[in-house]
Design a protein that fits this description.
Pfam families: Plug (PF07715), TonB_dep_Rec_b-barrel (PF00593). Keywords: Cell outer membrane, Membrane, Receptor, Signal, TonB box, Transmembrane, Transmembrane beta strand, Transport. One of its GO terms (biological process) is siderophore transmembrane transport. By secondary structure, the protein is mainly beta. It has a single domain, classed as Maltoporin, Chain A (Beta Barrel). Helix content is 5%, strand content 51%.
Length: 706
């Protein structure tokens, strides 16, 4: 696509936050199968490529970079933001979210530390350090691991090999100010590289206050995060040995949709391995990694008003994930057979305490452990000019849980549940099988494509072993109390997608229609048949905590269908119109009801003038009302809205750009359907109301690199 070519060619660019359709072949760390037909790529920073000296006009970014990278990913076709706070957002992709969307950072998968997913994967990808976000289009190939809905990989900036023998410096610096939340972000990269070695360090710092909206301020929405790390690579012939380490420190950060706020996330990432050719047309990819999350959340540090001493809570959570991956590919990039295996070992521990009473503690997730072993085979090639990617994988996942310990001040209700859980079988295992066929036929400017897939997802540890009734639900943040279900079964999705890509010199258009039939879809269902009648210990405990109708995770039957597209058009040389549109419908098949928390139809539309040094334009973000909501989950409808923003970029020099803009120009009051609901008393958002989008505000960003 023309837009992508411009982004790649820019010496220093912050390219438009609409998806581009390929990853530069010069990027050594591009994801497997990063093909225009197979992968959507949102380019945030287009680094200088070796040998490029021409400064080509590229569109500016339309928006201020949000701290939450999920808000950027949500601009992909089929995407929508699940807004749970400044640093806790998730991507909803074609109606599916949470653990159904595989999230990674720099190709590394890991378990979140928060029991309610306050740290979903993109929490660890500060937007000020983002290079690009790669999203497997429609469904993920089997080589990327098990995934029901799709896969997303956030790639941070890093040094690149050069073409010479002398070590040369590489640097990038970006800074931003945003008035809506009085926030700032600073981030950068400094490194050295030549044709065989590359070294680099990255760092970022972000801090923001409670954000404003048309009718006031959203209380308890401030945030603070620091990240730093180092990476290195050694090119051994056509392959590379690499290693990287990062430390992410989230300090007190508000989460208005949750009962507790973040006090800290201290998380260490390390991974290393080898990638590249070991013989002619034989490529080896080996990777080992570990992620350690240490987390504390409470209702005292930020929450206003703070909870009373009796209801004060401080919850400690740990999560450790060790991964190992290996694959061998025989053939070229466009014609190959790949076989591989991977393992993922996860240990989680959650302890709920009362900071005013040392005798009150409950091990809500005592030594939860997941062990997954998987293997896959994938072929890519063509038959009679028709391109194919065919793959299959099998995974065996084992779950286990320890015996919960409780303090002397814990009442009898939770004690009885803990004793029953200790006496029950606390082990389970599932075997899941995936199969994917993606095929397309290049016909010059037009490429029709078809995808057929069978995807499965094993239940999570929380969905299976969550013995204590709590509001932990992997980020649904809906105020409901949930409990696990030891007998829960894996989800099985049957997927079909048809679309075409039309690409010309000045015009691109990529529509898709899709259908997903999901057997055993996991969602909250009534705990028992006597809804509202408190006749069990689970319901008694839930009622004491304000929810007399608790839910358990159960299997239902569902279907999702819809359409999405993106396009770009340059009617004249200096003017570009581009956009993304998405629609998805989710329904229960076992009862007459709609699926819970499905994004409304939505549109992003941008128009920009592209000058040699000055570019400017406007963007429209709109969503239809969503009144097809889940009655069985008491979901409330939402209204339609349309928000306008302005943006501009000025090239001070070949290595320096200034971008600025105004968001929500007309100060529209709007509440995105998938935004969480406020739990903060000292706020201009009433308790239980959906969180609004930010009001009118200005932003400015400075970027430089060499």
């Amino acid at each position: 696509m023309f837009l992508n070519a411009l982004c790649r060619a820019s010496l220093l660019a912050s390219c438009a936050l609409f998806p581009t359709h390929s990853v530069s072949a010069e990027n050594e760390n591009a994801a497997d199968g990063a093909d225009p037909v197979l992968t959507d790529t949102i380019t945030v920073t287009a680094p200088r490529r070796n040998g490029e000296t021409e400064d080509v006009v590229a569109p500016p970014q339309q928006v201020a970079l949000p701290p939450d990278a999920a808000a950027i990913a949500a601009r992909t076709p089929g995407g929508f933001l699940v807004g749970n706070g400044a640093l806790s957002g998730q991507l909803s992709y074609r109606g599916l979210s949470g653990q159904r969307v595989l999230g990674r950072v720099n190709g590394q998968r890991f378990a979140t530390g928060g029991p309610n997913a306050m740290d979903p994967p993109l929490h660890y990808a500060p937007s000020i350090l983002l290079d690009r976000i790669e999203i497997a289009r429609g469904v993920a190939p089997v080589s990327q691991g098990p995934s029901l809905a799709g896969a997303i990989d956030a790639r941070l900036v890093e040094t690149q090999f050069t073409g010479g023998s002398a070590l040369a410096p590489q640097a990038r610096f970006a800074s931003q100010y945003r008035s809506a939340d009085d926030s700032y972000a600073l981030g950068g990269l400094i490194g050295l590289a030549n044709e065989r070695w590359r070294f680099g360090v990255i760092a970022s710092k972000e801090e923001g206050d409670d954000y404003s909206f048309a009718d006031g301020t959203v209380g308890g929405s401030s945030f603070e995060r620091t990240l730093y790390g180092a990476h290195a690579g050694f090119r051994a012939g056509p392959g590379e040995l690499f290693i990287e380490y990062r430390r992410s420190e989230t300090d007190p950060t508000g989460n208005p949709p949750f009962a507790l706020d973040i006090v800290f996330f201290d998380t260490d990432f390390v991974q290393g391995g080898f990638r590249g050719e070991i013989a002619e047309n034989v490529n080896l990819d080996l990777r080992l990694g570990h992620v350690a999350v240490r987390h504390l959340m409470d209702n005292q540090t930020i929450r206003q008003p703070a909870a009373s001493p009796m209801r004060a809570r401080a919850t400690f959570a740990d999560a450790d994930t060790t991964t190992a991956e290996g694959s061998v590919r025989f053939g070229t990039d466009r014609d190959y057979v790949q076989i591989g295996a991977d393992a993922e070992l996860t240990d989680k521990f959650v302890n709920i305490t009362n900071p005013t009473n040392s005798a009150f503690f409950i091990e809500a997730q005592p030594n939860f452990r997941s062990e997954r072993l998987g293997a896959f085979a994938q072929w890519r090639g063509d038959i009679g000019g028709v391109e194919f990617e065919l793959g299959g994988r099998i995974d065996r996942t084992g779950h286990s849980a320890g015996v919960p310990q409780l303090g002397n001040a814990v009442p009898m209700g939770p004690r009885a549940l803990a004793a029953a859980f200790a006496a029950a079988d606390r082990t389970a295992s599932d075997t899941t099988v995936d199969g994917v066929m993606r095929t397309w036929l290049p016909l010059g400017a037009v490429t029709p494509r078809v995808t057929l897939a069978r995807k499965e997802r094993a239940p999570s540890l929380l969905e299976r072993f969550g013995w204590l009734p709590t509001q932990a639900s992997y980020g649904l943040a809906d105020g409901n109390i949930y409990v696990g279900n030891p007998g829960i079964e894996p989800e099985t999705a049957w997927i079909a997608e048809v679309g075409l890509d039309l690409e010309t010199g000045a015009f691109s258009f990529r529509p898709s229609v899709f259908y997903r039939r999901v057997d055993g879809f996991i969602q909250g269902v009534p705990y028992d048949d006597s809804v509202g009648v408190i006749d069990s210990p689970v319901e008694m405990i839930a009622a004491m905590n304000g929810d007399p109708t608790p839910l358990t995770f159960g299997n239902v039957d569902a279907e999702l269908y819809g359409a999405d597209l993106d396009f770009s058009f340059r009617p004249v040389e200096r003017f570009e119109i581009s956009g993304v549109a998405s629609f998805v419908r989710g329904k229960r098949r076992d009862i007459d009801d709609d699926l819970y928390r499905i994004a409304p139809a939505n549109l992003l539309l941008s128009a920009a003038y592209l000058g040699d040094r000055l570019s400017f334009g406007a963007e429209l973000m709109a969503a239809a009302k969503q009144d097809r909501v889940s009655a069985s989950n008491d979901e409330q409808p939402s209204d339609s809205y349309a928000v306008v923003g302005l943006f501009a970029r000025y090239a001070v020099g070949p290595d320096l750009r200034i971008e600025a803009g105004v968001e929500n120009l007309f100060d529209e009051q709007y509440q995105p359907h998938l935004a969480g609901r406020s739990r903060v008393g000292a706020s201009d958002v009433p308790l239980g109301e959906r969180l609004p989008g930010p009001g009118r505000g200005a932003w400015v960003r400075l970027t430089t690199q060499f």
